[in-house]
Amino acid sequence: MPAADANPLTPFYAKRRVTVTGGAGFIGGHLTEALLLLGATVTVIDDLSNNDGAHITALAETYGGQLRFIYGSILDPTALAESMTGAQTVFHLAAMNSVPRSIDEPERTFEVNATGTVRVAEVARRAKATRLVYAASSSAYGDDPALPKVESMLPKPLSPYAASKLAGESVVRAWAHSYGLSGISLRYFNVFGPRQLAGDAYAAVVSAFITKLQAAKRPTIHGDGTQTRDFTPVANVVHATLLAGATESADGQPVNIALGRQTTVRNLFDTLARLIARTDIEPLYTPARKADVPHSVANTALSEKLLGFKPIKTLEDGLADTVAWFARQREEFDEPVAKGVTGA
Ligand SMILES: NC(=O)c1ccc[n+]([C@@H]2O[C@H](COP(=O)([O-])OP(=O)(O)OC[C@H]3O[C@@H](n4cnc5c(N)ncnc54)[C@H](O)[C@@H]3O)[C@@H](O)[C@H]2O)c1
User: Fold this and answer.
1) Taking the C-alpha atoms of 115, 206, 228 and 200 in order, what is their torsion angle to the nearest 10 degrees?
2) How much is the pTM?
3) Does some domain include residue 267?
4) How far does residue 24's CA lie from ligand 1's centre (Å)?
5) For the domain that residue 8 is a member of, what is the CATH number?
6) Which residues touch 85 (CB under 8 Å, ≥6 apart)?
7) Number of C-beta neighbours around residue 323 at 10 A
8) Strand order in the sheet with 251-257
9) What domain range includes position 139?
10) Per the domain annotation, does 86 fall within a domain?
11) Residue 97 CA to ligand 1 centre (angstroms)
12) 22: in domain
């Protein structure tokens, strides 16, 4: 992001009262930091169900009274109302964010992602917020073979996660039309970057590959590695999200946020192995996972037209930043660097 004084978004966000749901999370944490740098007064609500809170604690120490953290669920009416008192702009990112986990816990996924979005929209409208920006998902497109994915395609969610995130989009559109709550749904495509969780079975692929390779272990590829994704650096997603909060009008429509570049999972693996200097490691292949879609790449014309969005980082720059961050983490926590190659 450009320095705050040179950033054209500073006049809009400086002193603006903003609420970020899920602001302790991976994308929410980057967004919150960017908003603080722009001079906004930020309230974060997060139940820390998918986060240890370390980053938000560090931000609170740096930014003092400019940041208020509410430890609570968006499903708790009191905590939610408190988080939005006086909010002018609301960024709604809190969600259960995993396809495999949604298959294990479909009802809980709907409660948080769909009912949770109704609650956020209701409280935002009562608080007279002027914009609701919703973190939607490219999973809405499902396995429709047509590429690139364009917003006018009929959605075809295949997992409870995708269905619940699409339900959230419907809420944003309906609240815009029924109550005049200006909203926009940003369909993020496979976001990656520093601080994305790497440690569990639900980890996103970039973090999972990096941590295994840095530990000299073999990463797992589900399927044959020919599946493609539009891997998007988190810096681009934050930039697009800030533009969406500031754009003049928004009537609840969905907009793709991506690089617009199709990369195979095997290709991603090879690029990371080169960056980490571990081209001696081969991945382990396991059967494809249920509800994983074979191919995905975005048409990004609408984000450029509506938001003036252009990517600020390339895929390679984003991967290099992420590798460097994970390497620093390993140094800081003094993890032993294994010499040989072990199993997954
Ligand atoms: N990461 C991606 O590639 C991607 C792609 C498409 C869409 N999205 C969407 O972007 C948003 C952020 O994703 P992320 O990758 O940063 O995930 P994340 O899990 O790091 O962030 C979500 C945050 O929401 C919090 N949370 C969960 N349930 C909550 C509740 N009931 N009340 C309050 N807080 C709650 C979690 O503790 C976490 O900090 C999500 O809405 C996700 O669906 C992400």
Assistant:
1) -50
2) 0.95
3) no
4) 9
5) 3.40.50.720
6) 127
7) 20
8) 67-71, 41-46, 17-21, 89-92, 131-137, 183-188, 251-257
9) 4-191+233-258+299-311
10) yes
11) 5
12) yes
Report the 10 Å Cβ neighbour count for 23: 31
Catalytic residue among 13, 161, 202, 285: 161
pLDDT at site 291: 65
- In this predicted model, what pLDDT tens digit does every residue of 233-254 receive, in sequence order? 999 999 999 999 999 989 999 9
Share of the chain above pLDDT 70, in %: 94
**99 pLDDT tier (thresholds 50, 70, 90):** confident
Q: For the chain, how big is the Rg over CA atoms in Å?
A: 19
Name the token pair of 248. Answer: 């003049």
> In this model, does residue 200 exceed pLDDT 80?
no
Look at ligand 1, atom 32, and give the residue with the nearest C-alpha. Answer: 73
Most informative mutation of 20, 27, 161 for ligand 1 (most atoms within 8 A of CB): 27
Q: How many helices (H) and strands (E) does the chain have?
A: 13, 13
CA distance 145 to 150: 12
For the question of residue 161 being annotated catalytic, the response is yes
Ligand 1 centroid, distance to 95 Cα (angstroms):
4
Cα distance from N-terminal residue to C-terminal residue, the chain: 36
Q: Tokens 């996972």 sit at which residue?
A: 289
Residue 289's pLDDT is 81
What is the spatial distance between Cα 93 and Cα 242, in angstroms, rounded to a whole number?
13
Quickly tell me which residue has 């998918």 as its tokens.
50
**Side chain identity at 56, as an amino acid letter?**
I
Residue 77 lies in a domain: yes
Give the number of domains in the chain: 1
